[in-house]
Design goal:
The strands form 2 sheets. Strands 3-4-5-6-7-8-10-9 form an 8-stranded mixed β-sheet, with helices on both faces. The protein has a two-stranded antiparallel sheet with strand order 1-2. A hairpin with a 2-residue loop joins strand 1 and strand 2. The protein is α/β, with parallel strands linked by helices. The protein has 2 domains: 42 residues, no CATH class; 206 residues, no CATH class. It contains 6 helices and 10 strands, in the order αββαββααβαβαββββ.
């Protein structure tokens, strides 16, 4: 009997009509079985890749910049003004390993156990940042992140986003901000200091433009080797607006492709 007559393909796993064929094809059978079991496990068990951004005082979870940023686009598909200077499309963010980990996260969050694994990854951390690159592009992802935040009450979460421009996300962001340990900041598209309502951030042309005002803070990482150091303003609900001085070079047009 031909091998094709002895085997059936069910759900991608080769099975045999009669155990006697194991005597003929033992290696083939076991190899297929092990392969499919391993693939099945890989598809169901989450393995989130956590970032260690050099600026941050904590760990982060991120996605590919631009690819996961639908609200970073103008109506013609070009980037909004602020995103023309996106640091996450340049430098170390273009290293193969960095790109691969973020692409991995793009699919990994869909695993059934992603929430519980993320809670374990965050562990006893006092601070956590979501998206040092990318954005919460899918409403299902937003709800999963909300659950993680709720299950880690001793960790302060900061989530910057432009997805507030999509009305489908406003409700879940409001629920996130109702949690004592969460700050969702709406990122302005402006590079001239224009702000948006609520907890937010914006870019100004130079640090000299910043005029101290109640509830506003200037990011002074440029005075600290590009690092947060002891500053935690972005995680504070009492700071309504974070202002960043424009820095870095304009991103090449070729990086704004999907």
């Amino acid at each position: 009997m031909e091998r094709s007559e002895a085997a059936l393909s069910i759900g991608g796993i080769r099975t045999y009509k009669n155990l006697k064929y194991l005597k003929i094809f033992p290696v083939l059978y076991l190899t297929d079985w092990v392969r499919c079991v391993i693939l099945g496990i890989m598809k169901t068990l989450a393995t989130p890749k956590i970032s260690n951004a050099s600026k941050m005082p904590c760990k982060s979870w991120s996605l590919p910049a631009w690819d996961s940023c639908p609200s970073a686009r103008k109506s013609d598909g070009s980037p909004v003004d602020a995103c023309n200077y996106c640091y996450a499309l340049t430098g170390a963010y273009r290293f193969p390993a960095t790109v691969a980990s973020r692409k991995h996260n793009m699919e990994d969050w869909k695993c059934d156990d992603w929430v519980s694994v993320m809670v374990k990854k965050i562990g006893k951390a006092k601070y956590f940042r979501w998206f040092d690159s990318g954005d919460v592009y899918d409403i299902k992802l937003a709800h999963k992140i909300y659950t993680v935040m709720g299950l880690t009450p001793n960790c302060q979460h900061w989530l910057p986003t432009r997805m507030y421009k999509d009305s489908n996300f406003v409700s879940i962001f409001e629920r996130m901000n109702e949690l004592e340990n969460v700050v969702v900041r709406y990122s302005s598209d402006s590079i001239n200091g224009v702000t948006v309502e609520g907890l937010s951030s914006t870019i100004i042309q130079t640090a000299d433009e910043f005029k101290p005002s109640k509830g506003e803070s200037l990011c002074r990482a440029f005075e600290r080797d590009g690092k947060c150091k002891s500053c935690r303003a972005c995680w504070s609900k009492s700071v309504k607006v974070i202002k960043y001085a424009l820095h870095g070079n304009k991103v090449k047009d070729k990086w704004f492709t999907v």
